[in-house]
Amino acid sequence: MSTETSNSESTDPSALLEFRQVNTHYGAVHILKDVDLAIYPGELVCLLGGNASGKTTTLKTLLGMVTPTSGDVVLDGEVVNNQPTSYRVANGVTMVPENRRLFKRLTVKENLMLGAYLRNDRDGINEDIEYVYDLFPRVKERLSQKAGTLSGGEQQMVAIGRALMSRPKVLLMDEPSMGLAPALVQQNFELIEKINNEGMAIFMVEQNANMALSIADRGWVLLTGRVILDDTAEALRANEDLQKAYLGGGSGE
Amino acid sequence: MKEGKTVTAVVEGKSKRRTPLVDRFLFVVKVVLIGLVTIGFLAFVAQQISPDNWFARWRNPGATGLSADQIKGLVISGLSQGVFYGLIALGYSMVYGVLGFINFAHGEVFMVSAYTGYIAANKFSANGMWESNFALCLLIVLLLAVMVSTVTAVLTERIAYRPLRNSPRLIPLITSIGVSFVLQNAVLGIFGPGTQGYPQLPEWLAKQRSILTFEISGIKILVFLVTIVSMTGLWYLVERTKTGKAMRAVAEDKEIASLMGINVNRIIVTTFAVGGAMAGVAGVMFGLLFRAVNPMTGFLPGIKAFTAAVVGGIGNLGGAMSGGLALGSAESIAPQLILEPLGVPGVTQLKDAVAFTVLVMVLLFKPSGLFGERLSAEDRA
Ligand SMILES: Nc1ncnc2c1ncn2[C@@H]1O[C@H](COP(=O)(O)OP(=O)(O)OP(=O)(O)O)[C@@H](O)[C@H]1O
Ligand SMILES: [Mg+2]
Q1: Cα separation, A252 vs B277, whole angstroms
Q2: B261, A90: Cβ pair inside 8 Å?
Q3: Which chain A residue lies closest to B259 (C-alpha atoms)?
Q4: Domain range holding A85?
Q5: What is the whole-number distance in angstroms between the Cα of residue A55 and the centre of ligand 1?
Q6: Is A95 near chain B, with CB under 8 Å?
């Protein structure tokens, strides 16, 4: 219950988003174990790990959709443990959720505008929606279509567009290439790189580890809720144990 | 990596398949129902063409048929009953949409509004304003009753349902039946079991008018107008405003709605409030039209409105209103169009039986309701 402030040495004022010794539980099941993470402005970081290692839980805890049992979540220098998701979204984090999770019965336009739900700056919103249309001309052609009737690839575009509409400083992405055709996966990674090059920090969970590491600056590897590796993307790609254990069958062949 | 999910879905699909015996039984029920409705209706047509027809005389030798005016009258009275079902059904449907359970206390919210309207109208009547300045009084009565029913709906959510937000859906459903008893008995305790009367309507409102050859009383016209205005307002709120968009988002996926920054609790409260307001409008109109209210006033309309919501496709607002109109019309028309030609005695007493037969038929032939989308397993697990 007590969310004591840990005086861990990882305190870093320049980080956008930080975990300090975070533990989370679902009921009695211990999921994240003493996790320390930090994401800095402009970075592209990826989080790797096998199924059920706690990757989605990490993202949900960052957003306040799951409450940590101990440790701190720090957003832009402020401890936000007790702040609801809406506060964190208003202050610059959002997520493209696993499986996209569009509002299927709402139109594409309505989905996009819900991304900007907390904003009142009309001009800024218009600017951002034009930016989304530029990124995804296909989306612009389908604004009044129900999101549930879009193809998987189109849904992915709308999900990313919806997240961008909140104008985040850090964009969390949970397995953005899941369920996409191989050709689209490549395109999707290029797009993520492009958004990142324009200055937005991205924290991406991926199963497609080799591809993710090829565009990322840094990476973490999670094993049953514990961070077991934390290094630059290059070093991780060169790490043979990791290649064997988690990344086997990627680009290796 | 994700095949696991599809595999389970297939397995579940198999285990849900009914046994052939049940299927055969349901098929027989369907055939019998359709057969009866068809024969009844054909016999009615035969009656209309010529009462001496052997087919018309077959089940009901005394058949005389109905005049055009009688049929029009049945339609009008069916529709004017149906709008109440529709207005109340909206509340069932909206709450089901966002929380996935049936709020059986909703009929009582309607009754509370009818009582509020009764108190306010009689106060005005006592000091003479009801007669001298009817329009203003009606507006105030309506506003008061809508306020009280809205507050009642919001309070029931806060006190009875919010603490149960994360429990299985059956639990708030049972609780709602309890809430329903609490409200009924509170009103019973305060006003006693007797029926209370609304004051007399002014002459210009009560008298019969003729519109497009339909004979209709002024108050029924008012009921239809108020319903149209309320429905338009609701449609605008749900389809055109930011709050409405948030309501639809919450109905579909609460977790992602909160990821958008939507305050899910506030939207749920808004949903109860809007449903309560609709029931509030219905309560006053009901009081004006039937001029009587008692603690059980909410019971049957509540159950029928729930039926209407299911008939129209629960979770769907247009469906709720259409379901209400369809149910009201069926109730009013079917006894004389279908049952009487079949030789069923005392048909005018059978409204309620007709309403629930309509429910059974809709569930047999289109379980998702007339206008409902198929609720997929992932939507309503
Ligand atoms: N709401 C929940 N209630 C209980 N247990 C949960 C809940 N959500 C996740 N878990 C459990 O927590 C563990 C970690 O789940 P999580 O979704 O974080 O894994 P993941 O690394 O994202 O896996 P995947 O690669 O399959 O998406 C799993 O064992 C999962 O069953
Ligand atoms: Mg996951």
Answers
A1: 64
A2: yes
A3: A85
A4: 16-90+202-248
A5: 8
A6: yes
For A118, which of B245, B257, B261 is closest by C-beta distance?
B261
Is B298 part of any domain?
A: yes
> At residue B266, what is the residue type?
R
Encode B48-83: b = buried (16+ Cβ within 10 Å), e = exposed.
Answer: beeeebebbbeebeebebbeeeeebbbebbbbbbbb
Q: Provide the token pair at B257.
A: 């709605």
CATH of the domain at A76: 3.40.50.300
Return phi, psi of residue A81, to 5°: -50, -40
| Shortest CA gap B166–chain A (Å) | 14
Domain region containing B312 = 80-337
d(CA B211, CA A77): 70
Write out pLDDT tens, residues A146-191.
999 999 899 999 999 999 999 999 999 999 988 888 888 988 999 9
Q: What is the pLDDT of residue B6?
A: 43
Q: Which of B276, B299, B298, B277 is nearest to B287 (CA)?
A: B298
| Interface touch A178/B2, C-beta < 8 Å | yes
Q: Kindly provide the ipTM of the predicted complex, given to two decimals.
A: 0.88
Residue B11's pLDDT is: 46
Ligand 1 pocket, residue A28 CB under 6 Å: no
Return the CATH number at B176: 1.10.3470
Residue of B nearest to A109 (CA): B245
Residue to mutate among A112, A117, A167, with most B CBs inside 10 A, is A117
